[in-house]
Amino acid sequence: MSKTLVGVLIDVRVLFSAFDERMTRLFLDSYQLAFDEAYEDGVLDRPVEMIVQEVDGLPTGSVHEALEGWKALAAQGVVGILGPMATENAIDIREYIDREGHIPSISWAGSDLSYGEWVFGVTNGSLPDEPYLMANYLAHEGHERIAVLYEDSSIGLEYVSFFRDACKYEGLRIVIEEPISQIQGPDMAAPIRALRGTEPDAVAYLGLGLPTVYLNDELEHIGWDPPRIMGTGFMVAAFTKQGQSKLKGWAGIEQYDEENPIGQSMLDRFEARHGYRPANFLPLVCYDAANVLAHGIGKAYPISPAGVKRGLERVKMLPAATGGRGTYLSFAPHVRRGWLGADYLVVRKADTDKFGTPLGDLGSRLVHRWIPRTREQRKAART
After folding, report:
1. Which of 55, 79, 175, 315 has its CA 20 to 30 A from that of 116?
2. By three-state DSSP, how is residue 361 classified?
C-alpha cells in the first residue's frame, strides 16, 4: 500500500541523552499513535511512514547541524516535517524554509519569530505568553517585588522583554535582572546571592532550563527558601540526569492538566497499546503535533508539500490533548499559531522528592490556571 512520508526532526539531542533510546521511542510512539488513529478514523486514506533525523542543535550544538538535519529530511520526499523543536534553531531554520525549503513544518519553538508562511506552531510553551501567566500567578500569590534570573541567550532575552511588560500590567516591580549562561554549570553562588541581596518577595527564572537543576543546591547552601517560579524550563529539567526532583519547591509553566478528558483518553489508548503511561506533557504535545499534521494531510489536495500547507490552513477547532479542558487547535491562511484557549499553559509545582521522568509521572501538581484580575485589582497593586 502507498504511504505518505513525514519527517521527524529531533534537533535537541542533549535533552534525550539521559534516557537514551527510550526518549526517542516515547516521541515516536506518540506521533505514530496520532497518525495510526487518523488512518483508522478515515482522516487519512493511506498510512504515514516517519523518517527520523536526530541532530545536535543549540544549545549544545549548532544551528547549522539542525538546518542540515531539516534539509536531509526534505531531500527524502516528505510532505511535512515535525520540528524543529528548539527556539534558537527554529528562528534561522524558519527563514530558510520560507525562502526556499517550502515544506510545511510543525515547530515546537516558543518564539513568535518561529512562525512563517510554511512554519506552523504547536509550541511547547511560549516565550511571549508564559511571562503573563507567571506574573498573574505571582500577583495572585500576593508578591510585589520580583527578582529575575535569566539566561543570556535569544530565549532568555525574549522572555525578559515580555516579563517586564507582564509585571507592569499586573502591578509588580522587578528589583533585579541577573544574567547567567544558557549552559551554566553548578556554580550558582554569585547570581543567587545577587538576587537575595535585593530582598525580593519572589524569584522568577527565565530560560531554556538546563541550569535549573543546580538552583536548589545553592538556595539550600545559603539557607534561602523564597517563593519561586520559572517558565517552561520547568519541563526541560525533567529531561536531565538530575530530574525534576531537583526543582522541589519551584512552580513552573507546564502543559499537562489531568482534568483534560481529551488528554486522559489519549493516555488510556497509549497505555493500552504500549504498556506504559507517560502521564505528563510530552506525549500529549507529540500527539497533538502529529494529529494536526495528519488532519492537514487529510485536507491536502494534492498530497504534496504545497497541498499540505493549504490543508493545515483548513484545520479548525481540533480538540487538544495538551493543556486544560477546552484547549483546541486552529490555523488559517495568515494564522500560524496553533493553540487557542487560555489554559494551554498552566502552572504546576514540584513538591515531592520523587524522581519523575518523562517516561511516567513527573511528580508535580497543578496550582494555578490563568485568572484575569480586574482593573481595580491591578490598579490597587500599582499604588
Report:
1. 55
2. coil
Residues 350, 234 share a domain:
yes
Three cell numbers at 248?
522541589
Q: Are both 279 and 357 inside the same structural domain?
A: no
Would you state the pLDDT for residue 18?
Answer: 66
Strand partners, 230: 205, 252
The pLDDT, as a whole number, for residue 284 is 98
Number of domains in the chain: 2
Grid cell for residue 133: 501567566
> Side by side, which strands form the sheet with 4-10?
48-54, 4-10, 81-82, 105-107, 119-121
Q: Give the span between the Cα atoms of 343 and 263, in whole angstroms.
A: 13
- Low-confidence stretches of the chain (pLDDT < 70) are 1, 18, 355
Q: How far apart are CA 330 and CA 104, in angstroms?
A: 15
User: Which residues contact residue 237 at a Cβ distance below 8 angstroms, ignoring those fewer than 6 apart?
Assistant: 209, 212, 213, 243, 244, 246, 247
In 3D, which of 237, 239, 52, 227 has the Cα closest to residue 144? 227
- The Cα 280–Cα 187 span in angstroms is 30
Give every CB contact of residue 254 below 8 A, 6+ residues apart in sequence: 232, 234, 235, 281, 345, 346, 347, 348, 364, 366
DSSP code string of 72-89: HHHTTT-S-EE---SHHH
| Rounded Cα–Cα distance for residues 208 and 70 (Å) | 21
- Say how far apart CA 187 and CA 130 lie, in whole Å: 27
Nearest to 208 by CA among 133, 163, 156: 156
Same domain, 287 and 248: no
Q: How far apart are CA 373 and CA 171, in angstroms?
A: 11
Domain ranges, residue 85 = 4-125+259-341
- 164 exposed, middle or buried (CB, 10 Å; 0-12, 13-18, 19+)? middle
